[in-house]
Amino acid sequence: MKIWKMNGAGNAFAIFDARSVPFSPTEDQVRQLAEEMKADQVIALERDAARDVFMRIWNKDGGEVSACGNASRCVGRLLLDETGKDRITIQTEADMLRAFRAEDGLITVDMGSPLMGWEDIPLAEKMDVRGVDVKIGPMDNPILSRPAVVSMGNPHAVFFVSDVDAYDIPALGPLVEWHPLFPEGTNVGFAQVIDRQTIRLRVWERGAGLTKACGTGACAALVCAARAKLTERTAKLILDGGELLIEWRESDDRVYMTGPVELEFETEI
Ligand SMILES: N[C@@H](CCC[C@H](N)C(=O)O)C(=O)O
Asked: Known Pfam families for this protein (predicted)?
């Protein structure tokens, strides 16, 4: 079985080629593989009857999830190289994604349409998704409140803050990750709008903690910012591990993410 260690803007993946060799790790095995390979997520490539590949995703805590933006770009790069095609299709539990090459070796993935219904996120009860009833800190003087929420195939809550570096994210993120309003948990973004085309973002990922970049988190932050008219529908997202260009296209309502991928090493077992 081939194994690739890759990263997308610093978000690290151990990718297992399960197209000819079965690979169904237990939660413990995922945790062990992620630790040994210093990966935020473990990925398996499986055969798919209708698409170029089926991508399974596990967070480093062992939980299987349905979407991962940066891994989609890494898998996109592998499959584009392998097949020689100029566009490949990736089926995930959440959606069918399309990946293609951009300028300067960057990879773009069409991440599909954001889901805005409270049941889609999902939330435990009906609420205005532009600012849900979540507070962190004292009730009368919260440190943070009313995150915007959206699904990019996985749940995201985004707090807009004036200085992202002023917050202790490892302390605050877990308070929201498993808040009762989110029955499936949530990824938690801390977004600072620098100007109408630039957002600084750090994300506490569900099941993985603070990572150097979260692709679906970047899409979610841009969608929430543009929906609130804080930014244009295209913006540069500055994450700890690199930059992503996110475009929420008006013509088809789909979100396009462009950014770097790196193959760190490949091996076989
Ligand atoms: N790093 C990813 C997101 C991975 C899954 C996420 N932690 C979840 O639980 O939904 C990305 O680049 O999108």
From this structure: DAP_epimerase (PF01678)
Q: What does the alpha-carbon distance between residue 201 and residue 68 come to, in Å, rounded to a whole number?
A: 17
Residue 239 falls inside a structural domain: yes
- Domain interval for residue 140: 135-251
Active site residue 224: no
List residues forming the annotated binding site for substrate.
Answer: 11, 41, 59, 69-70, 154, 187, 205-206, 215-216
pLDDT at 178 > cutoff 90:
yes
Distance 240 CA to ligand 1 centre (A): 15
ipTM confidence: 0.99
List pLDDT tens digits, range 122-160: 999 999 999 999 999 888 889 999 999 999 999 999 999
In the set 68, 74, 219, 224, the catalytic residue is 68
Q: Give the integer Cα–Cα distance in Å for 147 and 161.
A: 10
pTM above 0.95, yes or no: yes
Closest CA to 202 of 170, 231, 178: 170
Task: Tell me, yes or no, if 214 is annotated catalytic.
Answer: yes
